[in-house]
Design a protein that fits this description.
The protein is mainly α. It has one domain. It contains three helices and no strands. Helix 2 (14-37) packs antiparallel against helix 3. The longest helix has 24 residues, at 14-37.
Length: 70
């Protein structure tokens, strides 16, 4: 992920990060389902989405209250 993209994620508010996380998870699930039926043209996109989800969860954890998980 490029630095500009990381910086833009850092500037988002907590509700915006959660919404982005929700849409990214949905996109990953749709792509994973497609991939199980027929191979997708770019399977590396699954890896990128998984990593983006991890980054979003990290930013949410950093911005959220200390003990909050989700």
């Amino acid at each position: 992920m490029k630095t500009k993209e990381k910086d833009s994620l850092r500037t988002l508010s907590l509700p915006e990060l959660r919404a982005e996380l929700r849409t990214t998870r949905e996109k990953r699930m749709r792509l994973l389902f497609k991939h199980r039926m027929t191979p997708v043209p770019n399977p590396l996109e699954l890896r990128e989405l998984r990593r983006r989800i991890a980054r979003l969860e990290t930013f949410i954890r950093q911005k959220g209250p200390a003990g909050e998980r989700r």
